[in-house]
UniProtKB/TrEMBL annotation:
Keywords: Membrane, Transmembrane, Transmembrane helix
Stored Pfam families: SpoIIM
Name of the protein this chain belongs to: Stage II sporulation protein M
PANTHER family according to UniProt: SLR1478 PROTEIN
InterPro entries per record: SpoIIM-like
Length: 325
């Protein structure tokens, strides 16, 4: 292709990209920024073609200048995304949890209330566990936390090199529970309430049964560490689901579709934080909770520190707003 035809075909695109660069250099949030990565890739392709075909140095230098300016903008936008993610973790997520405290409170009462309530009932009436959990699963839980088995949780016959496999398993398993609890909130909140009660009762029944038969130390020392993040995440996922359900039940003066859309914005952000908590929980469960070398007292102390850290983070992080630069 001759240079004149190449320039005629793409000149409008180059001028538009140059204009977009001018706007982005003056204002980071200028309109058109969403299409910038794709536009930048096409300019890079044009530069490569111009060099390969031996077009004039004037054209090559002009395109290269645009590529260099585009690279600076692309790097700045990626840095901005990283800063936004960091701001979400350090401030926006705990601030959102406090903003939605009513839903968080209701979900926590459902989940932790059923958990500790059933745990106490099973501890007092041991046979009740078989009305809540099949006998096969009860036997499996006993083998997982048998003090003489020499392992904790699902770590039987597991080499240290396989910890990453369990890490992936815990992530998928926990995210599945959290998403189920969240998404079922679209059933006017009834689905989220059901899964909060169901998961709370199941965990409580296991805890009460294992404590009753004398396996409490192995069980509690295993769950106390990652439980700080995992159990909190389940409660927050339920809160996000209840928020969706409430938008459908009481949309106020808005149409239900609009109320649901507005509620979904905050609920999805809440779920992003839940995913982060579950990632941390899976890491702790795979690499710390299943270890048998630390004493139970060490695990209790570490677990207490993790629960305290989660509480401080959700209650106090992001309370101070810094002035924008």
């Amino acid at each position: 292709m001759k240079q004149s035809l190449f320039e005629h075909r793409h000149m409008a695109e180059w001028e538009q990209f140059s204009l977009l660069l001018d706007q982005l250099e003056r204002n980071r949030s200028a309109p058109g920024g969403d299409s910038f990565p794709g536009d930048y890739r096409r300019i890079c392709q044009h530069l490569a073609l111009a060099r390969e075909r031996g077009y004039s140095s004037f054209l090559v230098d002009s395109l290269q200048q645009q590529v260099l300016r585009g690279h600076q903008q692309l790097y700045r936008h990626r840095s901005r995304l990283g800063a936004q993610a960091l701001a979400f973790i350090l401030a926006d997520f705990p601030r959102l949890v406090r903003e939605q405290w009513r839903f968080v409170l209701v979900a926590s009462l459902m989940f932790y209330g059923s958990l500790f309530g059933i745990a106490l009932l099973v501890y007092l009436f041991p046979d009740l566990v078989y009305n809540l959990i099949p006998a096969e699963q009860v036997s499996e839980m006993q083998s997982m936390y048998d003090p003489v088995a020499g392992h904790l949780g699902r770590s039987a016959e597991r080499a240290a090199s396989e910890d990453w496999v369990m890490f992936g398993y815990y992530i998928m398993h926990n995210i599945g529970i959290a998403f189920q609890t969240f998404a079922s909130g679209l059933l006017f909140g009834l689905g989220s309430a059901f899964f909060l009660f169901f998961n709370g009762m199941t965990i409580g029944a296991v805890a009460g049964h294992l404590t009753t038969i004398g396996y409490g130390q192995t069980f509690w020392s295993f769950v106390i560490g990652h439980g700080a993040f995992e159990l909190t995440a389940i409660a927050l996922a339920g809160a996000a689901g209840l928020q969706l359900g409430w938008a459908l039940i009481a949309p106020g003066r808005q149409a239900r579709a609009e109320a649901l859309r507005l509620a979904a914005r905050k609920s999805v952000l809440l779920i992003c934080g839940v995913m982060l908590f579950l990632l941390i929980a899976a890491f702790i469960e795979a690499y710390w909770s299943s270890m048998t070398a630390p004493t139970p007292m060490t695990k209790y102390l570490v677990g207490a520190a993790l629960w305290l850290s989660v509480a401080i983070y959700l209650l106090f992080a992001g309370r101070v707003r810094h002035a924008p630069e």
